[in-house]
Design goal:
- The strands form two sheets. The protein has a six-stranded antiparallel beta sheet with strand order 1-2-3-4-5-6. It has a five-stranded antiparallel beta sheet with strand order 7-8-9-10-11.
- 42% of the residues lie in helices and 13% in strands.
- The relative contact order is 0.08.
- It contains 15 helices and eleven strands.
- The longest helix has 23 residues.
- It is α+β, with helices and mostly antiparallel strands.
- It is elongated.
């Protein structure tokens, strides 16, 4: 749907003075086997038409014209919709359908009702018309949707009832209403901008009965959706220079049985650090274009906690909770520090490369030592190559990076971060201060 707004000096003001602003919608394509309206309010519009029209044959002809795309551009203004409709013989007729505008008092009551519930306007801003909005308006004596007899036809063919041309126009308008219920509110007398401006004025100037300010809770999604009609919020605070510190739980009062104050302080500090990091990441330019990180499993999160734990007693508790031996948790923590989840998976999971990934890995190994003698490597698993005669190993990851490993006390342990170049990764293990396991 596309529309153009025509400038008019008589736009509604906040006092409800009559408006002559109009919106013109380009002709819609033919409807092939679909209903004209899928929303409940669009269907209510058609029910008002079909319950009003006396000649069912005229309605059928109107439906056929609308389905065939015979309705031209539709102009919507307060109290009237207009379009030129083309007959099968090529002749054209201007059809108008009139609907009574709400008067100033009715608009005043509608605005007062809507301003009390941000959810009503939030729904309209989402191009929805919830039933409770219509019901609340009706309880104030305001009928938003037309009823039987409310859609008054006028046509150049001089029919006295709904003719095929005004019927086709109504069917087409049902499609417009499906997409934008503000079309109905314009027909009832208010442009979208005038309506939102009036609501914003009321929202910002509604004092409490006793002159004191009052606050009413509003669900976050409603408040966000209504952001264009409520008073502007202050700018959000910037990123704090560092995470906040946890409360100190070392008091004269003994903790309850089973409560470990040191563990609580550690968890609170960890939460503050993670929140600070997440906020810093969210404020980084381009954040919205980056993929969302997957959630950690309980086991991965336990390793992450252990990697940041300075207390050996708490580390022992984490090891016991993980079901790992202290040496196993120590290796997992070392892997985490070298590369987070990817490094932990390289330690604990043996990935089986496909044909293309394996070919790439072998090609990487050939190119890495193109200008030097390649160390003797033997396959030690689906994605692992061990340097013959040395306690050094390379592991190829799903992301195409190489992880260096060293054998210590009979077990393979992470020796450094990953690298795209296997020779550079292996050099991490080969330094003279790393046990002389050079390749």
């Amino acid at each position: 749907m596309s529309d153009t707004h025509k400038a008019d000096p008589y736009e509604h003001d906040t006092y409800g003075h009559a408006a002559r602003n109009e919106r013109t919608f380009e002709p819609l394509p033919p409807v092939n086997g679909r209903a004209f309206a899928t929303s409940w309010w669009g269907q209510a519009w058609l029910k008002a038409l079909e319950d009003t029209a006396l000649d069912r044959q005229q309605l059928k002809r109107g439906r056929r014209l609308a389905r065939a795309g015979a309705v031209g551009a539709v102009t919507v203004r307060p109290g009237r919709i207009t379009a030129v409709v083309r007959d099968p013989d090529g002749s054209h007729h201007r059809g108008d359908v009139l609907l009574q505008e709400l008067d100033a008092d009715e608009w005043d009551r509608f605005l007062a009702m809507a301003a009390e519930r941000a959810g009503h306007i939030a729904a309209l801003l989402d191009r929805e018309m919830p039933p409770h909005l219509v019901e609340d308006a009706a309880s104030e004596g305001i009928e938003l949707l037309p009823r039987i007899g409310d859609l008054d036809p006028e046509c150049g063919c001089e029919a006295w009832d709904h003719c095929p041309h005004t019927a086709a126009l109504c069917y087409q308008v049902a499609r417009l209403l499906d997409q934008d219920p503000f079309v109905l509110l314009l027909l009832r007398g208010r442009t979208e901008r005038a309506l939102l401006d009036a609501l914003q004025e009321r929202s910002g100037a509604a004092p409490a009965a006793d002159g004191a300010a009052t606050a009413h809770g509003v669900p976050a999604d409603e408040a966000f959706a209504a952001r264009d009609i409520v008073p502007p919020l202050p700018d959000p605070p910037g990123l704090p220079p560092e995470p906040g510190g946890p409360a100190h739980l070392d008091t004269e009062t003994a903790p309850e049985p089973g409560v470990d104050p040191a563990a609580l302080e550690f968890l609170a500090a960890d939460t503050a650090r993670r929140a600070h990091r997440l906020l810093a990441d969210a404020l980084t330019p381009g954040h919205e274009t980056r993929p969302v990180e997957g959630e950690l499993t309980d086991d991965q999160d336990l390793v992450r906690l252990a990697a940041g734990c300075p207390d050996s007693r708490l580390s022992a508790r984490l090891a016991a909770a993980s079901g790992r031996r202290p040496a196993d948790l120590s290796a997992a923590v070392r892997a985490w520090r070298f590369g987070g989840v990817a490094s932990l998976r390289a330690l604990e999971e043996e990935w089986v490369p496909g044909r293309e990934e394996l070919a790439r890995a072998l090609s990487d190994l050939d190119r890495a030592w193109a200008d030097a003698e390649r160390p003797a490597l033997r396959s030690a698993g689906a994605n692992r190559w061990t340097v013959t005669g040395r306690d050094a190993q390379l592991r190829f990851g799903p992301d195409g990076r190489w992880w260096p490993y060293r054998k210590e006390r009979g077990r393979w342990t992470p020796a450094g971060p990953a690298d795209q170049d296997p020779a550079a990764a292996l050099a991490t293990v080969a330094g003279p201060d790393e046990g002389g396991t050079g390749a």
